[in-house]
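**Protein record**
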Amino acid sequence: MKYIDSNVFIYPVVADEKTEKKALLAKNILLKIAKGVIEASTSSLTWDEIAWSIRRLLNLDVAINEGEKFLKFPNLKLLDIDEKVVKEAQRLVKEYKLKPRDAIHSACAIKNGIKEIVSDDPDFDALKEVKRIRLEEL
């Protein structure tokens, strides 16, 4: 099981895959998840990041559409954020100086026994509890 960071969902929407390699890599990862080739999960926080980023970069209508698509994404397990996850996130912020959202994603993975986070964000590299998998590695 791999934890999927929000940037994997955002890149294919906001960037042209013909000119932005990350968009194409992310799209290919999403296709593998949809086909069941990659066993994947993410937290409910990912919906927030998708909706916010796409609304800010594009517009509200696209954000609404992409939010709905995310909630129906095949073969993706959506994990809850509860008090235990938030307390773990607090520990990660203190120990690794992570940004709060990165800490929540990391804590959600850790509390669900997931050892790998697929992300373009190098901030996850500081963690000892999970390993970041770069987009080009999948």
